[in-house]
Structures are given as structure tokens and as C-alpha cells.
Write a structure and sequence with these properties.
The complex is a heterodimer. By secondary structure, chain A is mainly α. Chain A is built from 20 helices and 5 strands. The chains are: A mainly alpha, B alpha+beta.
């Protein structure tokens, strides 16, 4: 095979078919090895490519060929031992792969954390005797070293926090068998406890201790004391930018404490669970996992997939399938019908006419009640009638409401009984060309001033002319 | 129909008297109240929360449906929907005719399920028994609600399920449907219908 791919294209292919390396990394972690057996890789590639189309199959097989991987620099070493060839992949590639799949993060062990702490302490010791001069290559190298170690540590811990946050799925996995078979629960329980305790003791607790600023260590300062000491050293020697950077890093590290604490609490809760509680926990995890899958589908490159497509999920549980939607308020038919606008404009026109005659508006004398001052009453009613004579009205379905709207707040001194008088007048002597039709339907008019309600029979104001005339008018309006 | 034979006539009149008697047993106002509940997309649960007395009280509409089950079944069948009765969860709901298997059809059910599942998962993870979710004196407290609202993954899922405003909007959605009751400021618990869904998930899981 003479054809080979560039490093970029090989990497691209690896990420297009990430499952191959995901599985290899899983296997590598399980064996606690730093290499992948060539035979395993070949078998995996063969297995994976079986379902691919011809062109893809050849391409993937070629890209994952040992020779191609080695020459493109993704495999940095090939070790021959025990009759097999072992491939050592580039760390950066493996780490990037791990970043794409939270379950591939390596748990931080106590030993690894300690390793980091010891190197940091070492850097601090070297810093104490350092020259703090930018011209001294020893110092600049030390600075670079320090930066790299701190950012490495943060990255590692953050990955681990992410990993730990998936712990609920892991716990559900561990206890799946135990919760499903009630008769074997006790038997499983022992086993389960051991696994969970290992997880807790070996991974979660050390991280928690490592990140706790109050931890006392027998062999020296803890993480934050070490960092603080360095910050002080750098500040006293005037290297403020690095001191600030380090200080911010220590804040980031400190912030990681809380999420891990939450995880620790959850594990503790879990250990105290009864069988029923465990089943509930696992069931929730199981179905939540399905929801996460649906969510994962919305996170692909397709911009159209924004919403969860839950039809299958909903049908599989069957709960409330076919439930009605809640009615939304109906919106007004704004701009949808010409008659709406005609109505609006003619109403506006009438109101404008009223306003133009504002000067002629009669002022009705304020009275407490009717009956006592007959003379005033007669005077008021006459004034009101005169106004009504000149009031322009259009045909309406509800004359009472219309009239109230035209008088209330417009004529000073207008009282509710005036409406009754006005209505009486209009019924007996309707405006020219119009007639009042009293219907048998009742409506309620609320008075805003006091909480009284007026129940009235609906009255229509109709044109006495034929409808043809009305239609003509409407056409003119339009 | 004038051209029906006499034999048919007698049968029809018998049917009519039966049908009218089942209608006569029910007050139109109550039947209308039930219809309105269903129209608003609600489930009718056996016990509803009385916020004035701060206790669960029997829902008269539920009892009416329960006592005249066959009448209402037929009635809603004639209206083109299916009245679904769930005895374990003690609730009724109206199923729209399902001949068109469109997206809309499952949309409401799915959105309800998503929120309930998130609540259930949160609750189980906090180490409590799911039964407590259905008890007015327990349920979710203010702390729980703010914890739910601050979980980023939950927010993302809710947003993808068209709850743009996150947890508060989602809870309102349940509240309006009587799947959840608010038992005071910052407290809420699931109705028997809401809890039924979670219990059903557990049962389904247990059976493998």
C-alpha cells in the first residue's frame, strides 16, 4: 500500500469515526496500559468497517494502518514485546479523544494527585532560590514550567469533575442487577458496596481532600498553601502578572471543590439506599439517559435540529398521549378584514366629530340625586336632549354601551341616570333614518366609579333604509 | 325518519328513553364544567389542592365522572375523543382522536413527561423516596426549585423541549394541567396523575 494520508486527514478520519479509538482507549484503561495492541486495533477496524460503504471502508482501513499512523506521527512508538506489536499513540490525540467522551476520562487517583502536588512544591522550592530576573534563562524556564503544570492540573481536575458528574449513570450501572432482582438483592449489595466504596475512597475522596484548602498534610503544605506561597514570592519580587495569573488559577481550583462535594454527597446517599430507593434511582437514570440521547441528537451539526423529537419517547411510555393543547387566547383579526377597519374608522370619525364640537358640550349641573330639584332636572335633561339631537350615531348592535361610551367622561356632570333618560329619548324619537330595536338579550354594564352593575336589555340601532344603501355607503368608505 | 318500519320505531324509542335517562341524571352545569376542564388540557384528578384550606379535597368532577363512567365514555366518544380513566393514578384525561399520527399529537404528552422526569430524577438523586413528591407536606421546596433551575443540563433539555423560560415555565405548564399543585410560596408537589407517571417508569424499569 503506497497511498498514505497526511496527518491532518488521518486525524480528521479518526474523529469522523471516533468509535474505533473510543473503544481502544476503553480497553487501554481497563488493562491499565499505555499502549494499544496492534492486533486489537486491526480487529476493531475490521469489525467497525464491515458496515461501511466501499470507499469509506478502504479509506478508514488505510488511515488506521499502522504504517500510516506511524508516519503521520500519531503513533509515536511501536514496541515489540511478547510476540506482539504495541502502538503508543500521541498523548495529545488520546487526550482530545477523551475530551470528546466523558466516560473516557481517567479517574484521578491519590497517587497521581500527590505527584502533581510534589512537583508544585518542587517548583516552589526552586522559585525560592531563583533570581527573578527575566534575563536569567533558568528563571524564564521555571516560569514556563510553572504555567504548564498549573494549567495541566486545572485541566485534569476539570475533566474529572465532568467525569464525576456522570457518576449517577455509573451508579445506576453498578446497581442495575441488584435492583432488578429482589431475591438476589442482599448478595449483590455486598458486591455493590465494595465497588462504590472503591470509587469513593480511591477517586472522589482524594480529590476532595486535595482541593480542600483546610487540609493538613503530614509531609508539607497543601495545594493552596503551596500556590499562595508562590504568589507571595512572585509579588515580593515584582512579577505581578505571573502572581495574578497564579492567584486566579488558585481561585479556579478552589471553585472545583463544590461540585465534587455534591458528587460525594450523592454517593453517600446512594450507599444508604434501600432496594426500593435504588430501583427508583436507577429507573430515573435509565429514562433520563434516553432523554439525554434525544438531546444529543439536537447537538449535531444540523442547524434545523433545535427541538427534542420526543414522539417515540412519549408513545413508549404512553402517559397522557393525545392530551389536548391548552387554548391560547384568540388574537384579534387585526388587518385581516376590511369591515374591521371600516368599523374602526367610522368610530374614530364619530369621536372626532364629538371633539370638534367640544365647545358646544353642555355642562350638566352636578346633583346629588334626582327628584328634589325638579327645575334643575328639567334643565339638565333638556341640555342633554339638545346634545343628543346633534349627536351623530351609526348603526350599532349595542346602543346602550355605545351611548355610554360617548357620554361618559366626555360630558361634564354626566351621571348614570342620564343614560337612562338619553336611551328613553332615543327609543321614542330615534335619529333620522335610524330605528331602535329592543332585543330580548341582556347585558351587564359595569360602572367604574362605584361597583354597581346595570343589567340592561340590548338595543340595536338599525338603519331604516334598505341594506342596499348601507352597502353603498360601505363601498364608499372602502 | 318517516320510512322506518314500526318494529324499528319501538326499538328506537326504547334507546331514546335510556339515553335521556342517563343524561337526566347529570346536571348540565357539572357536565359543562368537566368539559371545560378537558378543553383546557387538564387532567381530572381525584383530589385537588384547596389553597384556601391548605389541604387536599375530593374533586366533585372526578366523582361525577367516576359514577357515570359509561355515560361519559359514550358521550365523549360521540364528540370524537376518548375518555381515558386511570384507576391506579386516580385521574381522567381526554384523548384526542389519534387517527392522525402527527407530531402535535404527542407534543403535549412529551413535554409533560420531560418535566416530570427531570423532577423525578432530581428527587431520586437527592436521596429521597419518590413517594414524597406526591405529599403536600413534602414535595419540592424552594431550595429544590432553585437547584433544579440552576442545573445547566436541565435548562438545556427544557429549552430543547420549548420551555424557553426554563423551570418556572415548565412548572406552570404542569400546574395548569393539574399534574402539580402549588402548596404555598416556593413549594409544590405532584398530583396523583403526575406521580403515577414516575411510578410507572419505575415499574417498567423493574420489569426489565
Amino acid at each position: 500500500m503506497s497511498k498514505r494520508f497526511s496527518t491532518l486527514d488521518t486525524t480528521r478520519l479518526l474523529f469522523e469515526h471516533p468509535k474505533i479509538l473510543f473503544r481502544m482507549i476503553e480497553r487501554m484503561d481497563r488493562n491499565e496500559a499505555r499502549y494499544i495492541r496492534e492486533s486489537d486495533l486491526v480487529a476493531e477496524v475490521m469489525d467497525y468497517t464491515r458496515t461501511l460503504g466501499n470507499a469509506d471502508r478502504d479509506r478508514v482501513r488505510l488511515a488506521l494502518n499502522t504504517d500510516n499512523l506511524f508516519r503521520s506521527g500519531l503513533v509515536i512508538d511501536i514496541i515489540k514485546a511478547e510476540g506482539e506489536r504495541r502502538l503508543v499513540f500521541q498523548d495529545a490525540l488520546i487526550n482530545l479523544m477523551r475530551a470528546c467522551n466523558a466516560s473516557l476520562y481517567q479517574e484521578l487517583t491519590d497517587a497521581r494527585l500527590r505527584g502533581h502536588l510534589v512537583t508544585l512544591r518542587d517548583v516552589r522550592n526552586r522559585l525560592e532560590t531563583s533570581s527573578f530576573s527575566d534575563a536569567d534563562p533558568d528563571y524564564t524556564e521555571l516560569r514556563d514550567d510553572l504555567n504548564e503544570r498549573v494549567s495541566q492540573l486545572i485541566g485534569l481536575l476539570r475533566q474529572n469533575v465532568l467525569r464525576m458528574q456522570t457518576i449517577s449513570a455509573q451508579l445506576a450501572d453498578l446497581s442495575g442487577d441488584a435492583s432488578r432482582a429482589p431475591e438476589k438483592f442482599l448478595e449483590f449489595r455486598q458486591n455493590l458496596f465494595e465497588q462504590i466504596v472503591t470509587l469513593y475512597e480511591r477517586h472522589i475522596k482524594p480529590t476532595l481532600v486535595f482541593l480542600n484548602p483546610d487540609t493538613r498534610l503530614p509531609d508539607g503544605s497543601n495545594l493552596f498553601e503551596t500556590l499562595e506561597a508562590m504568589v507571595r514570592l512572585l509579588e515580593s519580587h515584582g512579577d505581578h502578572s505571573l502572581a495574578d495569573q497564579l492567584f486566579r488559577s488558585s481561585i479556579s481550583l478552589n471553585a472545583l471543590y463544590k461540585p465534587i462535594q455534591v458528587v460525594a454527597q450523592e454517593v453517600e446517599h446512594f450507599l444508604r439506599k434501600t432496594r426500593q430507593g435504588m430501583v427508583q434511582y436507577n429507573a430515573m437514570e435509565h429514562f433520563y439517559g434516553k432523554l439525554q440521547e434525544l438531546k444529543g441528537e439536537t447537538e449535531t451539526l444540523s442547524l434545523k435540529r433545535k427541538w427534542l423529537e420526543g414522539g417515540d419517547f412519549a408513545r413508549s411510555t404512553g402517559f397522557l398521549v393525545g392530551l389536548r393543547a391548552q387554548q391560547r387566547p384568540k388574537h384579534y383579526a387585526f388587518g385581516e378584514s376590511s369591515s374591521y377597519y371600516q368599523l374602526l374608522f367610522s368610530e374614530l370619525e364619530l369621536r372626532l366629530n364629538d371633539l370638534r364640537r367640544k365647545a358646544e358640550v353642555p355642562v350638566l349641573q352636578e346633583v346629588e340625586g334626582s327628584g328634589r330639584h325638579t327645575r334643575i332636572d328639567v334643565q339638565r335633561i333638556n341640555q342633554l336632549y339638545q346634545w343628543l339631537e346633534t349627536l351623530e350615531l351609526r348603526p350599532t348592535l349595542d346602543l346602550v354601551r355605545e351611548l355610554h361610551g360617548r357620554l361618559d367622561g366626555f360630558i361634564p356632570g354626566y351621571r348614570f341616570p342620564d343614560l337612562l333618560a338619553a336611551l328613553n329619548r332615543l327609543v321614542n324619537s330615534p335619529p333620522k333614518g335610524l330605528q331602535v330595536v329592543t332585543t330580548n338579550r341582556f347585558r351587564i354594564l359595569d360602572q367604574s366609579s362605584d361597583s354597581e352593575q346595570f343589567v340592561y336589555r340590548k338595543r340595536r340601532l338599525e338603519s331604516t333604509e334598505s341594506n342596499v344603501l348601507v352597502n353603498q355607503e360601505e363601498q364608499q368608505h372602502a | 325518519m318517516p320510512d322506518l318500519s314500526n318494529a324499528m320505531d319501538t326499538k328506537e324509542s326504547a334507546d331514546q328513553s335510556q339515553a335521556s335517562s342517563s343524561f337526566e341524571q347529570i346536571l348540565p352545569a357539572q357536565s359543562a364544567a368537566i368539559y371545560r376542564e378537558f378543553q383546557a388540557g387538564r387532567v381530572i384528578v381525584r383530589d385537588v389542592w384547596d389553597s384556601n384550606r391548605s389541604e387536599l379535597r375530593a374533586n366533585p368532577l372526578y366523582n361525577l365522572l367516576y359514577n357515570h363512567l359509561s355515560h361519559f365514555r359514550t358521550f365523549y366518544e360521540h364528540l370524537g375523543s376518548e375518555l381515558v380513566f386511570n384507576e391506579t393514578g386516580a385521574f381522567f384525561f381526554l384523548k384526542e382522536s389519534s387517527d392522525d399520527e402527527n407530531e402535535e399529537h404527542d407534543e403535549n404528552a412529551f413535554r409533560v413527561q420531560v418535566i416530570l422526569l427531570l423532577i423525578g430524577r432530581y428527587f431520586a438523586r437527592s436521596g429521597r423516596d419518590l413517594e414524597y413528591l406526591g405529599r403536600p407536606d413534602a414535595g419540592l421546596n424552594e431550595q429544590d426549585l432553585s437547584a433544579l433551575a440552576s442545573d445547566e443540563e436541565y435548562q438545556e433539555i427544557l429549552r430543547a423541549a420549548r420551555f424557553e423560560k426554563g423551570v418556572p415555565e415548565a412548572l406552570d405548564y404542569l400546574d395548569k394541567r393539574h399534574l402539580l399543585f402549588r402548596a404555598g410560596a416556593g413549594r409544590c408537589f405532584l398530583s396523583s396523575a403526575g406521580l403515577y407517571f414516575l411510578q410507572e417508569l419505575v415499574r417498567e424499569y423493574e420489569q426489565g
